[in-house]
Amino acid sequence: MVGRASGLPGPLQSALERGMRAIEDASLLDRVNGPLAEAVRKVAEKQPRIADVLHGVPVGHPLHPAMVLVPVGTWTSAAVLDLVPRTGPAVPVLIATGVLSAGPAAAAGLVDWAELHPQQQRVGLVHAVSNTAGLALYTASLVARLRGHGATGRALSYAGFGAVMAGGFLGGHLSYRQAAGANHVEDVPHIVPPGWHDLCAIDDLPEGRPVRRLVGEAPVVAVRRGKAIDVLADKCSHLSGPLHEGRVHDVDGEACITCPWHGSTFRLDDGDVVAGPATAPQPSFDVRVDAGRVQVRLPGAG
Ligand code: FES
């Protein structure tokens, strides 16, 4: 008999799987998600630089996971200190720090969430509701403690801690199982063989229009502009959108390609992110032309 890899009792593991699948399939949640995501996207379109900072574009990594460390860390510390007698104002200070830092962390999560697939947004909504309940309980706990109701404050804190842990579990599912926020081109250097590869005849590349080609098993997008030829991985690093269906245009005088799914924009020259929601760059191939044939090589492949 084959053992369970998770180590969880079978019924618990099955219940968790069923529960998560039920949330992913709960299309009823789309009645909230659709208008809410559209409203968030409209605000983000008006403030694209702020939206990119919240996505984490300047640091090349999603910002939300780093920002949740403050509320989760302070509230976890408060939960431990609540077991210790006579800690003075330490616990209320920790809870207040968590409450104040929750807003920016939520804002970063919200702009990411608005650019996800429906199944991811459903899990994301329940994650947000759970964390909002945690925030409300911690706020109520703080008020109770400041009014001298320590026992009530502690009870509310532990209820909040439970809600935030449930939210964390859902966030883990969203990131690891559903790959929201993950780099969707991490595999490319592993599936492209090292060295130079024949791509196509130079005459097969239309002027200024992106086309899809294969390098081994890896799809790439090639763009020819006069004598310049740029080749990037075709799968968008955000959520695997097809870049060859995207738009080639100039941004601040540099040629870029914009993903048709959520508008991430990458510099053709080197694959760097010019605009989010993507935070990871596109793998960029070296290109040379030999006897009318375009050849490509991915630095670091293999
Ligand atoms: S898949 Fe989302 S921007 Fe490309």
Can you describe this structure?
It comes from Motilibacter deserti. Keywords: 2Fe-2S, Iron, Iron-sulfur, Metal-binding. Residues 197-296 form the Rieske domain. Pfam families: DUF2231, Rieske. The two termini are 37 Å apart. With 302 residues, the chain is an alpha+beta fold. Strand 6 (254-258) and strand 7 (265-267) form a beta hairpin. Helix content is 47%, strand content 17%. A four-stranded antiparallel sheet has the order 5-6-7-8. Strands 1-10-9 form a three-stranded antiparallel sheet, with no helix packed on it. A three-stranded antiparallel sheet has the order 2-3-4, with no helix packed on it. The protein folds into two domains: 10-177; 188-297, Rieske [2Fe-2S] iron-sulphur domain (Rieske Iron-sulfur Protein). The longest helix is centred in the middle third of the chain and has 29 residues, at 118-146. The relative contact order is 0.10. It is elongated. FE2/S2 (inorganic) cluster binds at residues 236, 238-241, 259, 261-264, 277-278.
Keywords:
302 residues; alpha+beta; Rieske Iron-sulfur Protein; 2 domains; three-stranded antiparallel β-sheet; 9 helices; 10 strands; 47% helix; binds FE2/S2 (inorganic) cluster
